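Ticket #165: bound-state structure for fe (ii) ion.
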Amino acid sequence: MPADAIELLTSQHKEIRALFQKFQKSAETATPQQKQALVGQICETLTVHTYLENECMYPVTRQMCPGLESDVLESYQEHHVADVLSAELAEMSPDDERYVAKATVLMETILHHIDEEEQEWFPKVREGMDRKQLQEMGAQMAQMQKNAPRSPSDALKKAVSAMPV
Ligand SMILES: [Fe+2]
Ligand SMILES: [Fe+2]
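RESOLUTION: The complex was predicted; output attached.
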């Protein structure tokens, strides 16, 4: 049985949290180049994840669960903040004094965001859609993941849903 939409996104959240922990644990010992490699991996994982939500999960939620409209709109803005910070990190030297601070703010923003998704509104999406719809959406996102953008600038080029930012 393929993962349903919420299972798929939640397992990606788990992967994102694990990468953040790795960054925090190695903060004292990693070289700037090692930090840059890990931040690159974090930004790529986030870009794929937010793309699937922006292009599939969020528009479907707006349609099927109108009561969650303000949660979805707030979430788009949080993705936008993550895109801006990720794009800035991609352009910045890991020796820059702002590098770790910017990466830390990105991670804090996203941790808050995924906690809200999991605790506050994904459970309501599960209530508002039936099992078959969630499975179909999961299958669609698994398919979209194969060709998903890997960087925020690619994500903007590939966006089709006119993310309201
Ligand atoms: Fe999200
Ligand atoms: Fe998410």
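RESOLUTION NOTES: The domain at 5-147 is CATH 1.20.120.520 (Four Helix Bundle (Hemerythrin (Met), subunit A)).
TICKET STATUS: resolved
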